[in-house]
Predict the structure.
Amino acid sequence: MSENLEKKWYVVNTYAGHENRVKENLERRIETMGIQDCLFNIIVAEEDEIEIKNGKKVEKKKNLFPGYLFVEMIMTDDAWYVVRNTPGVTGFIGSSGGGAKPFSVPQEEIDGILRRLGKTDKNYVVNFAVGDRVKILMGALSGNEGVVESMNDTTQKASVIVNFFGRETSTEIPYLDLEKVKY
């Protein structure tokens, strides 16, 4: 069987609520089994969420994909064996079973997830600048327009002033979720 020796992202299924424990188990196994050259990044897709409890703000993590981890790896027989036999792993998404290796996740989809988590190292060239009118393409304010107030090339986010319920509100939006409005 020829192996694809290219670094790609895969989705690993875990028991819901055990994603971080499985990530720790997998990181430990990578070290003890000496396969650092095949397994690179393990991500639990979590966002900070603020909840109001008894009148107080409580910050907690919200898992965007309960029961799943994203693993960047070279799909060798050894790496595949180590991941699928890690305690808490129930399998790979895209594997039909019976010894069939899983399909990788398209890079565009992973880029979107990494961007949402603020874990991307890609810098994007945009066609808008401070003062330009932009349309918001993704998220809760999707479809709204606003004016770019400031831009942060490090975080790849722009501060956009949006008219929200009759008030001007500044909100941070990732560059890729904005499009310059053409008149």
Q: What stands out?
A: The radius of gyration is 20 Å. Residues 133-180 form a domain with the SH3 type barrels. fold (CATH 2.30.30.30).
